[in-house]
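Catalogue entry: protein

Sequence with per-residue tokens
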Amino acid sequence: MIVWTDPAHISDTVKEGSYYYPDTEWLIDKRNIQGHFIAFAAKGGHNDEPHNHNDLGHFIVHAGGDNLLSDLGAGLYTKDYFGPLRYTLIHNSAEGHSIPLVNGIPQSAGGASRAKVAENEEAAGRRRFGLELGGAYPEEAGLQAFQRSFVWSTDASAGQARLELTDAFRFVGANNTVEELFISFYEPSIEANGKRIVWRGSGGEASLELGAIQGVASVERIETTKHLGEPVNVYRTRIVVSELGSDAELTFLLRVEGGGKPA
């Protein structure tokens, strides 16, 4: 593998701002808060992109030098990576991204599995980004519609950021189950009688609050290999919410703070 860059930019500081890339439907927001870098990114698009992963609605949270909720990136290239088993591998599969399983069913691969941007605006210090994702799941998931909404804001005086994540589902029938997945290279702790999940890095921290959601949280450790052959542990948090009616809305609050690596 050959990696190169322009040496003139190696010492550049990270630029603040909110950026949206309409061709790929990526939103990225980066802020310097009290001298530390805090960022959020989320993606739409479709599941037949170059080097595709099944990841519509996936998101990343960074603070203080740590990717607390992560994207796994490319895995080790093997025969299976480019064959029929591609989407059974965690790096490529929907279950290797911070998106839900619906009635036990993950997102589908292919160009027909597509997000639709429903909202993309910045006002009153908040960035709103909404995606309609019902078409990303096969018929057996039992979905009529599924909208994932992000509201991201930062508070410089408190040295924190806040992400409100809402998943609104409309199902074909009743008695549904949603498994919300959150992916990280950091092992989280389950606190407050299962109502709070905390990822602590070397410089940043993210705390996910379930609020009124009656979910059961657990953490799985998964051994995998990075693209260049480095073994690594991935921690997949799974929050199972059962017995949902034909309409259901799940809202999580994620608080993020830095304090480690300077911006």
Observations:
- Residues 153 and 254 are 11 Å apart (CA to CA).
